[in-house]
Design goal:
alpha+beta, Endonuclease I-creI, 2 domains, two-stranded antiparallel sheet, 6 helices, 7 strands, 18% strand
Length: 187
């Protein structure tokens, strides 16, 4: 499976025409996939053999790269398969934006799946739902800018006071068991 860099690097959001959105929604209705991944992430994918159509989709909604799936070697029991191209977005804010743009144009089944994705995006930990509304950690410390650590890449919040207490207890346990290595020059 080879990857090819995207030719369209347009910033989001973009000024889309209704006709472009309707075209995209029709294509997505027939060739697209809206799914919740095993890790809880969401993604929108269009996979097909027409590179020019995928390039047009990528101009409307740029993705990081177009995935190129080369065919398997020829086998006697089936025809020569074609190269497939896949456009995919998975960033929650982009998935939400694209779904909201094409929702009025979708059929009943695809619309229901997209609404399921939107509901899921609203309840993911750290991005919405009950955790977003919490003002205090489990031990009762307030989430203030000074006391809140946001884990890079996940947006999950952690209480700095609890992290400090945990690391202090962890180091003490390691010292008691003799597993802690002293710093160089501090033996």
């Amino acid at each position: 499976m080879a990857k090819m860099q995207s030719q369209a690097e347009m910033t989001w959001p973009h000024d889309w025409a209704d006709l472009d959105i309707a075209w995209f929604a029709g294509l997505f209705e027939g060739e697209g996939c809206a799914e919740i991944a095993k890790n809880g992430g969401t993604r929108l994918t269009i996979r097909m053999t027409d590179r020019d159509v995928i390039d047009r989709v990528n101009v409307l909604f740029p993705c990081k790269n177009i995935q190129v799936v080369n065919p398997k070697p020829v086998q006697p029991h089936y025809n020569q398969p074609k190269t497939h191209y896949a456009w995919r977005i998975s960033k929650p804010e982009r998935v939400r934006l694209v779904i909201n743009l094409m929702l009025p144009y979708l059929g009943e089944r695809r619309r229901a799946k997209c609404l399921e994705l939107l509901a899921h995006l609203g309840t993911r930990p750290g991005t919405g739902g009950p955790n977003r509304l919490k003002t205090h950690c489990a031990q009762g410390h307030e989430y203030t800018p000074a006391n809140t650590y946001i884990r890079p890449g996940t947006s999950h919040r952690h209480c700095r006071i609890c992290m400090l207490e945990w690391s202090t207890e962890y180091r003490a346990r390691r010292r008691l068991t003799g597993l802690e290595r002293p710093f160089p020059g501090m033996e």
